Amino acid sequence: MIPDPQNMVAKNQALSLGRKKDDLIIAAATGLAYIGKTGATSTTLAAESIGMNSDGSVTTMGTAATYSSSTTNITLRKILTMTEIFNQADVDPDIAKYWVVAPNNIAYMLSLIAVSSADYNTMKCIAQGKVDTYSGFNWFWSNRLATVTATNAHWQTFAWAQDGIILASIGDISTRIDERKDLDYMWQIFSKMDLGAVRMEGSKVHECLASQDMTATALS
C-alpha cells in the first residue's frame, strides 16, 4: 500500500499535538510566569493581574478570582467589565484581543439579544451558531480550560491582548511516514513539535470565572 500522509493515524497525532499546544498556552496564561533579569523569580497571574470573580465583581491586585453563590455565565455585564479592565490598564485599543471560553458559555452568549441581534452586532451569530467578534474581543471556545470545583463548579476563562502571551516555536507540528525494515517493512508514523508559551504582561491577561451550568439561558 502507498503511505497516505493524510491517513487517520497521522491526523489523530496532529490533533493530539494541537491539543498539547492549547494546553501550553492555557498553562502560560493562568499559571506561573518568570520575571526578572535572569527569569529566576516566579509570579502568579493573580499577583500581576486583576480579574473577575464568578459573580462578575472585580478582584484586587494580588487576589485570585473566587466563586460565589451568585456565579453567572459570560453575561453582557462581564463582557463590558472586561473591556473596562483592559482600558484601565492602558492597553492599546488597536491591539487584537481574544477571549477563550467553554462551549456552554458560547451557547449562553447566543441567547443574549445584545450579542445575537443585528441591531447590536453586525455578525449573524445565530445563523452561524458561533460568536466571532463582540465588544472588541475575538471569541473562541475550548474544552481544555481548567475547572475550578467548589460549591459551584465553574470555568477559568481568560482574555488577553495579542502581545500578552507569546508562543515561541522552533518547529511546529511535523509528521513523517517511513517503512521500518526491522519490523518487516511496517509503516511508522512519527509526529513532533518543539514550542513553548509564556505570559509576557499581566496587565494584558485577565481571568474571568464563569458558570458551568449547561441549562442556563439568558432572558434578554
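Next protein, fold it too.
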Amino acid sequence: MVIYIDTSAMLAVLYEEDTNHTQAIQAWLTLAQEGTELVCNNYVFWEAFALLQRRYGLEKARALQECIAPLLEIDWLGAEQHAEAINSVLTANRRNLSLVDCASFETMRRLRIETAFTFDEHFKEQGFTVVP
C-alpha cells in the first residue's frame, strides 16, 4: 500500500508535545509494520523541515532528515506541477488553503494515491481517505 505523508503527520511524530503525537506514533508504527510505502513531495518535506527547525530546534529537523527521510519516497515537483498547484490555490480562492496543501493534492492525484497520513482536514475535503 502507498500512503502520502503530510507535514502535520511528520510534526506530530517528531514533537512529543504535539496534541496528535500519541495517535501519530501509533499510526507510524502500524504503517511500518504493514510495510506501507510513504510518499511526500519536496514541498511537504521542505515545510516540515523549516517548521521543525524554527519551532522546536535543529535537533528535530535533524531527526526528520536522519530518521524519517530515509523511509520516504520524495516526489520532486517541477515547473508544471508547481504551476498546477499555484493555479489550484488561486482557483480555490481560500486564504487558509496553502500552496503546499494544493501541491500535495496534485501529487496524490498524479500518482493515484488515495490515502494520506495527516491531521489536516483539507485532505478529507478533497475526497482523500486519511489515517489515522
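About the second fold: The radius of gyration is 14 Å.
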